[in-house]
Write a structure and sequence with these properties.
By secondary structure, the chain is of the alpha/beta class. The protein is about 20% helix and about 25% strand.
């Protein structure tokens, strides 16, 4: 590959490789910070550098170190932060892998090296130092693109230089900010990244050298201060979506065996399921989870009813993996919204959080936006994107009350900040996801929201008006961290990374025209 070389100071260069590689020379020897593809090595003799002695990795991502896999033994020592061996060292290959990614929430890493690397020393860490080639290198813990990431601080040519890895990017932004989403709903990664930036902005910095993008030479500390604020805004966006709202939990009648009655014909069972009873004695099962099937059987026996239909709010396995068993036991027919069904079209090759590679076929499809009749109940059907894009809502009048079955997109205030969380990997959307879903609830005016995870609560317009404001603020907070200002290019690009790894990423990632 073509590599551009830029001299930043006498004896200090930046190579534009798969990441920025910084080379620091003293005499005939040099050290490098990060490695990239290694194509830059051939340029060293022309710079008067006959020997490279050390390579220091700021973090484990493939674009930082992939070229090191070209040979098993190098004539220099490779150093990495302690803790990164889980992604790099062959001895830990069974612990964390590139793909298929761990299905329960976010993966431990979105960009672990494609080939693991031997002969790496995991001997650097935050707040330690190294004396090499006449330089004292100090290391500052700057997590974000992983919990062990660090920055390298040193003085050269009368300047204090900070090579910050992916802790910061020019313009007070973050390279591929989805890496800050260490799980599928909290802001723990964003908060850790903020703490790292707070550490850096306390330093005197002449050159801030990130792993991607240009070097920051104009008031780098002021840039870091702006980034610190943006990271806190992002962290707060991960917080409550309707602050100050009460839970409005409905108080059911407990029947025993983890079963509850909310209305004469509406029941909740197990950890996620609902059951709607028809005057015919048939039952509609909502969100059948395999862990709840014994409880469902108890409830059916107790009420002397038989499920004939199933409906699903979203594709996450704890809301639908019981479909085959319920179909086999009761001959019930499954109904899925087209958006919800999309990840299941080729589940064995699809990488999404909470997706099990099992076959749910056969199932029938609802209209994308319309009505569905089941016995005496007429359901309104619509997309309901939020926690994930592949989500729907369906509402019918039950015992004189409008009941909206809402899965995990919106929850009571005390649970998971009221949303079940957002992340790029789950394809959570703001202006074309949470916002129209909240507006739909305001238009439909349900009396009851039968949400996932045993949360049945009374609808409150004020709660959903607050959610519409939060959705706009969250969109701004995430967009502000994107170097291009484009969510598709910098944030939702995680789905392109999945495709590059040879796995399927479902369509329907934007609102249909």
């Amino acid at each position: 590959m073509s590599v551009h070389c830029e001299q930043l100071l006498p004896g200090f260069w930046r190579f534009e490789d798969t990441c920025n590689v910084y080379v620091l020379q003293r005499g005939e020897e040099a050290i490098a910070i990060d490695f990239g593809s290694g194509a830059w090595l051939e340029h060293l003799p022309a710079l008067g550098i006959p020997r490279l002695t050390h390579v220091f990795l700021t973090h484990h991502h493939d674009d930082q170190c992939a070229g090191l896999a070209r040979q098993a033994c190098w004539p220099f020592t490779i150093h990495a932060p302690g803790g990164e061996e889980q992604f790099i060292d062959p001895a830990h290959a069974g612990e964390s892998h590139r793909a298929p990614w761990f299905i329960e929430g976010c993966p431990a890493s979105y960009d672990a090296p494609r080939t693991r690397l031997a002969n790496v020393q995991y001997d650097i860490g935050g707040f330690a130092w190294f004396f090499v080639n006449g330089f004292r290198l100090r290391f500052v813990h700057t997590p974000g693109h992983g919990p062990h990431a660090l920055s390298v601080v040193f003085e050269h040519a009368g300047r204090q230089i900070v090579c910050c890895g992916d802790a910061a990017h020019a313009g007070a932004t973050i390279w591929e900010p989805y890496h800050l989403e260490w799980d599928h709903w909290t802001g723990s990664g964003a908060l850790a990244a903020w703490q790292g930036i707070e550490r850096l902005q306390g330093l005197g910095i002449d050159l801030l050298c990130p792993a991607h993008g240009p070097v920051v030479t104009e008031q780098p500390r002021r840039m870091l201060q702006a980034l610190s604020k943006k990271l806190l805004d992002f962290y707060r966006a991960k917080g409550h979506v309707s602050p100050g709202e009460v839970n409005r939990d409905l108080q059911p009648e407990q029947l025993g065996h983890d079963c509850f009655r909310y209305l004469p014909h509406l029941y909740q069972f197990g950890g996620n399921g609902y059951m709607l009873i028809s005057e015919s004695g048939e039952a509609l099962v909502v969100d059948p989870w395999s862990s709840d099937l014994d409880t469902l059987a108890w409830l059916c026996d107790h009420l002397q009813v038989r499920p004939t239909a199933m409906a699903v709010s979203h594709y996450h396995y704890d809301h639908c993996d019981g479909i085959p068993a319920v179909r086999e036991r009761y001959a019930a027919t499954a109904w899925l919204h087209p958006w919800v069904a999309e990840p299941w079209q080729d589940a064995a090759r699809t990488i999404l959080p909470w997706l099990l590679p099992i076959d749910l076929q056969p199932f029938n499809l609802w209209p994308e936006d319309g009505v569905w009749q089941w016995n005496e109940y007429t359901f309104a059907i619509a997309p309901w994107p939020g926690q994930t894009w592949w989500h729907c809502a369906f509402m019918a009048e039950v015992d004189g009350r409008r009941v909206l079955f809402g899965g995990d997109t919106f929850q009571p205030t005390a649970l998971w900040n009221g949303t079940s969380g957002f992340c790029a990997f789950n394809n959570s959307r703001f202006l074309d996801g949470y916002l129209p879903s909240a507006e739909l609830a305001l238009a439909w005016k349900p009396h009851i929201i039968a949400a996932g995870h045993t949360n049945c609560y009374a609808f409150s317009p004020s709660k959903f008006r607050k959610i519409t404001r939060w959705a706009r603020q969250a969109d701004q907070a995430v967009r502000a961290l994107c170097p291009s200002g484009d969510l598709e290019r910098d944030y939702y690009i995680v789905h392109e990374r999945i495709a590059e790894a040879g796995y399927r990423t479902p369509g329907n990632r934007s609102v249909p025209a």
